[in-house]
Amino acid sequence: MNRIHPKKLLHSKWTKVDVTQKMKHFSVCEVSFDDNQKVQSCTIRAEFTHQEFAIDWRQLTDTLIWRQGWQ
Question: Which of 54, 40, 36, 47 is nearest to 71 (CA)?
Protein backbone atom coordinates (compact mmCIF):
# COMPACT_ATOMS: atom_id res chain seq x y z
CA MET A 1 0.00 0.00 0.00
CA ASN A 2 1.42 3.37 -1.06
CA ARG A 3 1.10 6.01 1.65
CA ILE A 4 0.06 9.41 0.37
CA HIS A 5 -0.56 12.64 2.21
CA PRO A 6 -3.21 14.66 0.29
CA LYS A 7 -1.29 17.93 0.68
CA LYS A 8 1.78 16.41 -1.04
CA LEU A 9 -0.22 14.90 -3.89
CA LEU A 10 0.22 17.74 -6.38
CA HIS A 11 3.17 17.20 -8.79
CA SER A 12 3.85 13.73 -7.40
CA LYS A 13 5.08 11.14 -9.91
CA TRP A 14 3.63 7.68 -10.49
CA THR A 15 4.36 4.59 -12.59
CA LYS A 16 1.49 2.43 -13.77
CA VAL A 17 2.09 -1.30 -13.35
CA ASP A 18 0.07 -2.34 -16.44
CA VAL A 19 1.26 -0.20 -19.34
CA THR A 20 -1.36 0.62 -21.97
CA GLN A 21 -0.66 2.56 -25.17
CA LYS A 22 2.86 3.46 -23.96
CA MET A 23 1.37 5.37 -21.03
CA LYS A 24 3.54 4.31 -18.11
CA HIS A 25 4.68 7.48 -16.32
CA PHE A 26 2.17 9.89 -14.84
CA SER A 27 2.24 12.99 -12.67
CA VAL A 28 -0.52 14.61 -10.67
CA CYS A 29 -1.23 17.92 -12.40
CA GLU A 30 -4.30 19.17 -10.52
CA VAL A 31 -5.80 18.64 -7.09
CA SER A 32 -8.78 20.52 -5.68
CA PHE A 33 -9.86 20.59 -2.05
CA ASP A 34 -13.24 21.27 -0.48
CA ASP A 35 -13.85 23.63 2.46
CA ASN A 36 -12.78 20.93 4.94
CA GLN A 37 -9.42 20.46 3.15
CA LYS A 38 -10.40 17.03 1.81
CA VAL A 39 -9.46 16.10 -1.75
CA GLN A 40 -12.42 16.79 -4.00
CA SER A 41 -10.86 15.89 -7.37
CA CYS A 42 -7.52 14.72 -8.73
CA THR A 43 -6.19 14.83 -12.30
CA ILE A 44 -3.17 12.91 -13.58
CA ARG A 45 -1.27 13.51 -16.82
CA ALA A 46 0.50 10.88 -18.92
CA GLU A 47 4.03 12.12 -19.59
CA PHE A 48 4.33 10.40 -22.99
CA THR A 49 1.04 11.50 -24.56
CA HIS A 50 0.16 14.49 -22.32
CA GLN A 51 -3.38 13.16 -21.93
CA GLU A 52 -5.12 14.03 -18.68
CA PHE A 53 -7.37 11.72 -16.68
CA ALA A 54 -9.55 12.35 -13.64
CA ILE A 55 -9.06 9.65 -11.02
CA ASP A 56 -9.97 8.94 -7.43
CA TRP A 57 -6.74 9.80 -5.60
CA ARG A 58 -7.19 6.79 -3.29
CA GLN A 59 -6.49 4.50 -6.27
CA LEU A 60 -2.86 5.60 -6.09
CA THR A 61 -2.50 3.69 -2.80
CA ASP A 62 -3.05 0.36 -4.59
CA THR A 63 0.39 -1.15 -5.30
CA LEU A 64 -1.11 -3.60 -7.79
CA ILE A 65 -1.92 -0.65 -10.06
CA TRP A 66 0.51 2.16 -9.14
CA ARG A 67 4.11 2.56 -7.93
CA GLN A 68 5.42 5.79 -6.42
CA GLY A 69 7.98 7.60 -8.54
CA TRP A 70 9.06 6.86 -12.09
CA GLN A 71 10.50 3.38 -12.41
Answer: 47
- Asked whether the whole model's pTM tops 0.85, one would answer yes
Of 10, 9, 7, the C-alpha closest to 61 is 9
Give the start-to-end residue ranges of the domains of the chain: 6-68
pLDDT per residue rounded down to tens, the chain (71 residues):
888 899 999 999 999 999 989 999 999 999 999 999 999 999 999 999 999 999 999 999 999 999 999 99
